[in-house]
Design brief:
The protein is α/β, with parallel strands linked by helices and 260 residues long. It has a domain of 180 residues. Helix content is 37%, strand content 16%. The chain has eight helices and nine strands. A seven-stranded mixed beta sheet has the order 1-8-7-2-5-3-4, sandwiched between helices. The protein is globular. InterPro entries: Plipid/glycerol_acylTrfase (IPR002123). One of its GO terms (molecular function) is 1-acylglycerol-3-phosphate O-acyltransferase activity. This is Acyl-phosphate glycerol 3-phosphate acyltransferase. One of its GO terms (cellular component) is plasma membrane. Pfam families: Acyltransferase.
């Protein structure tokens, strides 16, 4: 794994995850949940004609809210879209656990273990399997949600997938999802409206092979520039990161040599 979150081509990336197979719950979600959500939230969708009707495609968007990955499949329907979600959403017990598992399955989520190292490699491998099956996958190059509304630098895992598989990348600008469900909110607001902008598919065959760090960086910057053109966010010249969880981590991040 490289420092910006891309896989190291010399490291193994195999996983025992099974090929993607649509379940009855997912079929139900496409038929019932997506139209219901569109009726309630009335998202404004622009550039829908830019979505390839079939074949593998990577949807790459900015990341403002928990609901971003759900908003994309709803806006892209009837084109099926899958996104990765942490496995905790699928392993709960009781009625709450059943509801969480059923909901995320219905909206196209694929469970993965989240984290660095091998977990990150396995997540990328799962996305590659989604693309190899001819499906569409949604990813957020920034990695985690922006807490200040700015658009952060993209990590190169998305570009690695595009260069490795040859799948086109459709950039997406999400606007207003942070108002519908801000960080920390328990339920989405019904007062706000989301805008989903699909850009023209990007052909990233020119930067070079996936094994080239320069090619991955060039492709990533091209993806992020296209996202910015759609979202219009203020730019942050840094990588986004989760807030420090421990006192030691907070101290390490405050040290000058730890800053990016």
């Amino acid at each position: 794994m490289t420092s910006d979150g891309a896989p190291n081509p010399n490291e193994p990336g195999e996983t025992d995850a099974t090929p993607l197979k649509p379940s009855a719950l997912y079929t139900f979600g496409r038929i019932a949940i997506a139209p219901l959500a569109r009726a309630i939230y009335r998202p404004r969708v622009e550039g829908k004609s830019n979505i390839p009707p079939e074949g593998p495609v990577i949807f790459a968007s900015n990341h403002l809210s928990f609901i971003d990955s759900i908003a994309i499949p709803i806006a892209a329907a009837p084109r099926p879209v899958h996104f990765l979600a942490k496995s905790d959403y699928f392993t709960g017990t009781g009625l709450k656990g059943w509801f969480s598992r059923a909901f995320f399955t219905a909206v196209g989520a694929v469970p993965v273990d989240r984290g660095a190292g091998q977990a990150a490699l396995d997540a990328l491998e799962r996305q590659r399997q989604i693309l190899d099956s001819g499906a569409a996958g949604a990813l957020h190059p920034e990695g985690t949600r922006s807490r200040d509304g700015r658009r952060y630098k993209g990590r190169t895992g998305v570009a690695f997938l595009a260069l490795q598989t040859g799948a086109p990348v459709v950039p997406i600008g999400l606007i207003g999802t942070d108002k519908v469900m801000p960080v920390g909110a328990k339920m989405p607001s019904l007062k706000e409206r989301v805008v989903v902008k699909f850009g023209e598919p990007l052909d990233l065959s020119h930067p070079g092979p996936a094994s080239s760090g320069r090619a991955r960086r060039t492709a990533t910057d091209e993806i992020m520039a296209a996202i910015h053109a759609l979202s219009g966010q203020e730019l942050a010249d840094a990588y986004n990161a989760l807030p420090a969880q421990t006192p030691i981590e907070k101290i390490k991040r405050a040290l000058p040599h730890e800053r990016r």
